[in-house]
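Hypothesis: this fold can be encoded by more than one sequence.
Test: take the structure tokens below, design a sequence, compare later.
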């Protein structure tokens, strides 16, 4: 029985790549909520002031070190190689804010079109402009961020490699895209300097802020129930980066793609998550209404199964694109691919294949991982020893002190963003 829906509005976006035709997405009346995301600005400001955001590289440093102990040898080898190749790009981005422009600016000229064109020519699939919203800046990066305007760019990762998630092949797509994006960001920044302005590259592997809210504000997509930016052409199959600048630009507007209501009806990622880490109901979190991922249910799966990302793989917007998904919804009132192996099936190494309605099982120990910063975790383990019947020996006390010393000397950070 076909339950055709009334179209409320059509969103027109540029084609997937530079030179491609425009892309029209019909949004059914039944899916309309509001442009961008529902939020309460007073609450956002309050949380920023009292509980500022911090990078997972710092806040979650203990488990980010731990993951290396459970990687397969192949993943470990590839991650080490990626870090070796990528580190010079991260280092180069770090100092871009200090580099002076090489050209002379044309006074009074808006630079939006020139920058957007160059970004598209370089290969970025989505490009948008907004204010760099310091509410979402990480505490440790606040002083580093120099310029007011944010250029939000997304680089698509390989389609077919992504459909093999979770796999080493998909990790090649994931980390390989970061490597390309890091280099392309430096090229775009050099171009902005030629126009006569400063440009600071926020490396996609050393994030300065929570980026998705700014991408939403720039109209490049909406937040999905999987906690990822769903953009028109590739859903969440992309890697995000920001460049800040003092070039005069015009900000884009947030868009209602119908994603908030669509996710409530779809729920495929929520139902297919092997770690049961995604939650059906939205909650208010730091002043924003969203589906909040349970980190401790996700991380153990990600670490052991090649980055997992089943929630990316099974999303129809990733798999088929937003236009076919929304057209199908208008025609039938249904979610394209829902309930099919084509969309929902995945294979977990040593566990087998899981089709619609089937999920793997893990025992409780599987979810025991270190928490917090490295020193917090060290204290927690030491406290457990003190509370146990066999008190720590003198040597163990000395080991604790020297390990703590080492952590504090090196600082809080660990390896880059994933
Ligand atoms: S990465 Fe895997 S475990 Fe984590 S939320 Fe996505 S599907 Fe669930
Ligand atoms: S799988 Fe469905 S519910 Fe999950 S993010 Fe994609 S569209 Fe939303």
């Amino acid at each position: 029985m076909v339950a055709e829906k009334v179209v409320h509005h059509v969103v027109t976006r540029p084609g997937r790549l530079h030179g491609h035709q425009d892309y029209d997405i019909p949004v059914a009346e039944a899916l309309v909520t509001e442009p961008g995301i529902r939020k309460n600005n007073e609450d956002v400001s309050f949380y920023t002031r009292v509980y500022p955001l911090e990078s997972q590289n710092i806040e979650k440093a203990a488990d980010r070190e731990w993951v290396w102990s459970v990687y397969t040898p192949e993943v470990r080898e590839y991650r080490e190689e990626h870090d070796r190749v990528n580190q010079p790009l991260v280092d180069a981005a770090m100092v871009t804010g200090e580099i002076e422009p090489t050209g002379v600016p044309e006074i009074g000229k808006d630079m939006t079109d020139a920058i957007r064109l160059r970004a598209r020519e370089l290969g970025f699939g989505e490009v948008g402009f907004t204010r760099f919203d310091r509410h979402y800046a990480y505490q440790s990066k606040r002083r580093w961020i120099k310029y007011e305007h944010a250029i939000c760019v997304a680089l698509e990762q390989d389609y077919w490699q992504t459909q093999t998630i979770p796999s080493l092949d998909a990790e090649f797509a994931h980390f390989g895209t970061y490597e390309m994006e890091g280099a392309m960001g430096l090229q775009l920044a050099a171009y902005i300097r030629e126009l006569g302005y400063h440009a600071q590259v926020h490396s996609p592997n050393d994030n300065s802020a929570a980026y998705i809210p700014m991408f939403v504000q720039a109209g490049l997509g909406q937040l999905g129930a999987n906690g990822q930016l769903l953009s028109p052409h590739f859903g969440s199959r992309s890697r995000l980066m920001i460049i800040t600048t003092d070039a005069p630009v015009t900000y884009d507007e947030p868009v209602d793609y119908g994603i908030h209501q669509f996710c409530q009806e779809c729920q495929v990622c929520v139902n297919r998550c092997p770690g049961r880490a995604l939650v059906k109901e939205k909650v208010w979190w730091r002043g924003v209404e969203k589906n909040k991922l349970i980190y401790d249910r996700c991380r153990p799966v990600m670490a052991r199964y090649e980055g997992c990302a089943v929630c990316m793989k099974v999303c129809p917007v990733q798999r088929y694109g937003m236009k076919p998904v929304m057209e199908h919804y208008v025609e039938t009132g249904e979610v394209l691919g829902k309930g099919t192996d084509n969309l929902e099936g995945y294979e977990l190494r040593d566990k087998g294949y899981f089709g619609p309605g089937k999920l793997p099982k893990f025992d409780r120990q599987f979810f025991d991982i270190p928490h917090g910063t490295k020193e917090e975790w060290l204290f927690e383990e030491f406290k457990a020893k003190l509370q146990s019947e066999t008190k720590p020996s003198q040597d163990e006390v000395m080991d604790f002190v020297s390990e703590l010393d080492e952590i504090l000397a090196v600082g809080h950070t660990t390896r880059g963003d994933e």
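The pocket of iron/sulfur cluster (ligand 2) is lined by residues 224-226, 230, 262-263, 266-269, 314-317 (CB under 6 Å). The two ends are 44 Å apart (CA to CA).
Hypothesis status: open.
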